[in-house]
Amino acid sequence: MNVFVFDIETIPDVATGRRLYQLDELDDGNVARVMFHKRAEESGGSEFLRHHLHRIVAISVVLRTSDRLKVWSLGDTDAGEAELVRRFFDGIERFTPTLVSWNGAGFDLPVIHYRSLLHGIVAPRYWDTGREDRDFKWNNYLSRFHERHTDLMDVLSGYLPRAAARLDEVASMLGFPGKMGMSGAKVWDSYQAGDIEGIRNYCETDVLNTYLVFLRFELIRGSFDPGRYEQACQQVREVLQAADRPHLQEFLQTWQAG
Fold this sequence. Notes:
Layout: E1 3-12, H1 14-20, H2 28-43, E2 54-64, E3 69-73, H3 81-95, E4 98-101, H4 104-119, H5 124-127, E5 149-151, H6 152-156, H7 167-173, H8 187-192, H9 196-220, H10 226-242, H11 246-257
Parallel strand pairs: 1-4, 4-5
Antiparallel strand pairs: 1-2, 2-3
């Protein structure tokens, strides 16, 4: 089974905000401030923008196939949003994997949907619900209760919002590194400062936490026995050890120290 764990990082879609609120005279920073302010007024305090007003600046992936495990961010640091989204769907077209996320059904995938709509990105395998492949009628990427996309936050909370937990807290509870330095709330500031690499690195540590939680989930539902679970964890350690990338080395060291 191919497993495709993913996480996205986003910033305000200031181009759409500028059009919606007729802010042609304002720079990006001030357009974003208006967007946050209007959202806080609308929601009663929260500045977290609606899904269609996010722009993707990073998509990070852990891909497990029969012969390898790899963690990386899609595209180069200067890749545009359309390329990132296209590469995401290309992975699905190529591998037909099980998608794994933390709150992917509630945030990441709806954002990806809107951005693919904006850029006109064709992804027939992802959108299939049985028209092309009969098996997808019973297990597809779009149904909340099918396994082809496993949203760990949804499944572990029993699909109850009041039982939902943060990835950082669950990862830390299990002895995994959790958040390391950055958080989603700091991504816009980091983007304005030109630190795309830092955003991508942060996204990769989030997706590693998600994959490690998924391995534990595989254990508790009986897909792995304890020996296979430990082998899968060791595979992650070996991949991180071999990676000549400081943030992955730090992730490994934090994990081992815990």
